Amino acid sequence: MPVSLIISLPAALSAALIAASSAAAPPFETSEDGHLRVATMKAAGESRGIAHAGAPFPSEPDWQNDIRRQVGALQIADMNGDGLNDLVVGIFRSNSFPPYDDWHDLIYYNTGTELEASPSWIADDEIHTGDLAIGDINGDGFFDVFAISGGSAFSPVRIYFGSQSGPSTSPGWLSSPPRSGWATSGILFDADNDGDLDAVTTNQGISPNPFRPMHFFRNDGSGLETSPSWLSAEESIQNGLSAADYDGDGLLDIGVAKWVNFESGLYRNDGGTLQATPIWTTGDDGTDKGAAWGDFDGNGWPDLVIGHDEPTRKYANDAGVLTLDWESDAPFYSPQEVKAADVDHDGDLDLGEVHFADGRTHIYLNEGGQLAIQPSWTYDASTVANAIAFGDINGDGRTDLAVGYSGDVSIRVFYGLAPKCAADLDGDGAIDGDDFFDYLDAFAADELSICDLDADADCDADDFFGYLDLFAQGCD
User: Fold this and answer.
1) Which pLDDT belongs to residue 13?
2) What pLDDT sits at residue 476?
3) Which pLDDT does position 427 carry in this prediction?
4) Considering 199, 260, 287, 332, which has the largest number of Cβ atoms within 10 A of its Cβ?
């Protein structure tokens, strides 16, 4: 597989410099935060899925769009109250080449069992959106879109307020931070347990001062304050955050991923207000992007995953004490987002991630409280990957996967698969005489791939009676 060239760029790299150099340059993509550039050298036909045993998704997408965009964020939620999950899409603007000519945010509404072919909701504004959060911010019973805006234009964070027919296409709220900056990610969460959603954004600037603090916007019951009432003490470059009660005191705390020269860490919630300095850090000032909490080992305490450059890491939580206990063994690292979800519906949390430089999406399945070290499922796209979201889109009760890219196919959706029924040999969803006689034929022909159920390299009575047991059990 031809590996893309990845280059770290200073936040100050100007549009004029790229425009001057791109005339003779091959096509390249720039990440949503402006820090990474990839010369895209894969052919369009190289996208492929790599599934291993037990993988919950197919090797090829079930739905995809065909519009050239840079998708920076995805959220799956019912935005118009019809009981069907829709796909909310944040589009970012960058100095990629060839340039992109459209960056309106979008919503693909659900037609019943799949997303519409073309988005029927298009934002009026054409701004840089690097992240999205969905929630009822003003308490009117409708989902709102919290668009984490930024880019080199320093566009303010905005809210598209929801209604019975879906969100307004124009923002009804704009942030007014004490100093202009580039918001990179954000979340909605109830920080003070008063029943409404507050917000935190991570931020950066542009040289000569590329560093900014994080911002907290409190909700007074009717909506968010426009100017943040809390700023982190440290000014840095952050990108990726997640909320969970890490210490069991009933208040949600914040895990934050930070860029080069800063240590990702944890900001504790003290009585409804975040502490200005982290109570814990990773001790590593590498290139981190993306954070996700989840109780992967089932001990009742949320663990913290950080999208690290070499490699993605999980810190196990034991009664409020975080310890590094897992690292992925993927073939390449350039994480953009990490998300936790029970994708195989076995009662524990699995992990998904997308990588910018090589375009790969990985799923790590959880078996008995331990994440697989190597990816359990991979989709290797010919374009760079930016965003990931989980939710039930086709209405079958299983978790589906949406991935956002930069390129002509900018969104791919994979429907969750039901576990394979071992006795259903012909795959028609029912166990009947056809399956039984298929097994007898395989047993007589010594076809190990079918009849060797106990994997001891032969077909014997143990396998035969094992199949009879599976046949009697049926499929769920």
Assistant:
1) 42
2) 60
3) 63
4) 199
Residue 16: its pLDDT value, please? 43
Strands lying side by side in the sheet with 182-189? 182-189, 198-204, 215-217, 230-231
3-state secondary structure the chain: CCCCEEEECCCCCCHHHHHHHHHHCCCEEECCCCCEEEECCCCHHHCEEEECCCCCCCCCCCEECCCCEEEEEEEEECCCCCCCCEEEEEECCCCCECCCCCCEEEEECECCCCECCCCCEEEEEECCEEEEEEECCCCCCCCEEEEEECCCCCCCCEEECCCCCCCCCCCCEECCCCCCCEEEEEEEECCCCCCCCEEEEEEECECCECCECCEEECECCCCECCCCCEECCCCECEEEEEEECCCCCCCCEEEEEECCCCCCEEECEECCEECCCCCEECCCCCCEEEEEEECCCCCCCCEEEEEECCCCEEEEEECCEEEEEEECCCCCCCEEEEEEECCCCCCCCEEEEEECCCCEEEEECEECCEECCCCCEEEECCCCEEEEEEECCCCCCCCEEEEEEEECCCEEEECCCCCCCCCCCCCCCCCCHHHHHHHHHHHHCCCHHHHCCCCCCCCCHHHHHHHHHHHHHCCC
Predicted local confidence at residue 47, as pLDDT: 80
User: What does the pLDDT read at residue 429?
Assistant: 65
What confidence score (pLDDT) does residue 233 get? 98
Q: In the prediction, which pLDDT does 22 show?
A: 43
Query: Maximum Cα–Cα distance for the chain, whole Å?
Result: 77
pLDDT < 50 regions, the chain: 1-23
